[in-house]
Amino acid sequence: VNDFRRDGHALVDLLADHLDAMSRREGPVLPSARPDELVQRYSDALSSPTDLMSLARAVLADSNHLHHPRYVGHQVTAPLPATALLAMMGHLLNNSMAVYEMGPASTAMERVSLRWMADKLGFPAGSDGVLTSGGSLGNLTALLVARAAARAQHGERPLAIVTSKQTHYCVARAAAIMGLGEEGFVPVAVDERFRLDPADLSRALDEVERRGRAPLAIVASACSTATGAFDPIGPIADIAAARGVWLHVDGAHGASAAIAKRYKHLVAGIERADSVVWDAHKMLLVPALVTGVLFRDGRRSYTAFSQAAAYLFDGDDAGRRWFDVGMRTVECTKRMASLELYGALALEGEAALGAYVERMFDLAKAFADEIAAAPDFELATPPDCNIVCFRHVPPGVADLDALQTRIREAIVTSGEYYLVMTTLPTGVYLRVTVISPGTTRDDLTGLLETVRSALTPGPSPPGGEGRNLVRRDASE
Ligand SMILES: Cc1ncc(COP(=O)(O)O)c(C=O)c1O
């Protein structure tokens, strides 16, 4: 216990110093090291004993620094430090959550957090759900429930998921896991702003019928991963209702718009969805992974996993003890993720979280305006939220795709910014998610300057001595 107390204090000091350094924009965002070098180094280090602080310092130095205001990469937030402390507490207590007795406080916090999410989405009193580990697992969970509903409707007829070409790949993975086959995934066209085209949705649903299948679900994105486009949920819900098809909204990133006064219109109609996935680790300032899976009809949340496990669930109401959360998820042992989400709500409050979402969306819009006004930059599309895709188009460059790749590599290697890339039908684009709470307008303006000068030889920026040869794109 004495070691724990000593190391705990030292570790918090180290991390507090790190947060201070980040606010001063010190050091590289992503330290540069080749994967094989790093594996070798960590492997070699095992041959001699170390202490916790030496290990912690090494990990800190070798990690991607999401609290750096110039982290504008994948959609993972820089958590509120207090929620990281709560996460540490959760890891120590290690309550495993499948049954109430194995996590009484975390079960209570999960129930309250889900109720809050459901209310924010505009779901009715009978709605319910579960927290699970990530949007991918959350979408699978919701789609398993949708499949149970489709089976009840259509018997053994083969099923198909209908969704836009821009939907996150985890939906196709869910289809593969459910064994739907290639015919079981029918893509819908998007408009020029990458939003699902409702007219083509009707065609796709007809296509499902022609293939002798029945629709398992329509999946709308709020928003899409690559460009942050919000599908028009209202018109999609009209089609789903007219045809009696389950509507699932993947709000992993963008459901948080529901708490931002000036942006909640982006998710108008989400209350009509049968199920919604909402990642708290994307836009609610909590550590990964915390995902809400919500069902408008809360009773549905049991229907994917009705296997009996008498040793765990010896309850009433056909085993449906609402307080045993393991009845509703793929997971059995599950970490106390509710502690961080509930903690963010309890410590910061909904208004502060909503203000953070608004500020990130506002910054991205201002950044996009700046890009649109610069003749040597091209915006892929005006952003709906805090994801911006753009490219540098200086005169006289034949291969613009290769240019973006080289620019990104140079910037990430220098450690000045961390940004990613995506490939759209019109080519390769640099991709920014404004998500780190410390990011300012100047950081974003500075990024354009950094892009312009990335391939011009000049003095080495901080942390620029390494090489980063790993290609990263927007496939989180
Ligand atoms: C729209 C969308 N859905 C699902 C996911 C997957 O979520 P997770 O990484 O939490 O599994 C992402 C990740 O970026 C996403 O953007």
Describe, in plain words, how this protein is organized in 3D.
With about 475 residues, this protein is an alpha/beta fold. Strand 4, helix 9 and strand 5 form a beta-alpha-beta unit. The longest helix has 24 residues. The two termini are about 40 Å apart. The chain binds pyridoxal-5'-phosphate. The site of pyridoxal-5'-phosphate has 15 residues, from helix 6.
Tags for this model:
single chain; globular; 12% strand; binds pyridoxal-5'-phosphate; 14 helices; 476 residues; alpha/beta; 41% helix; disordered C terminus; 4-stranded antiparallel beta sheet; 7-stranded mixed beta sheet
Structure classification: alpha/beta
Kindly state the percentage of residues in helix: 40-55%
Average pLDDT taken over every residue: 93
Number of strands: 11
How far apart are the first and last residues' alpha carbons, in Å?
39 Å
Order of strands in the sheet with the most strands?
A: 1-7-6-5-4-2-3
Main beta-sheet strand count, sense and barrel state: 7 strands, mixed
What is the general shape?
Answer: globular
Order of helices and strands: HHHHHEHEHEHEHEEHEHHEEHEEH
Low-confidence stretches: 460-475
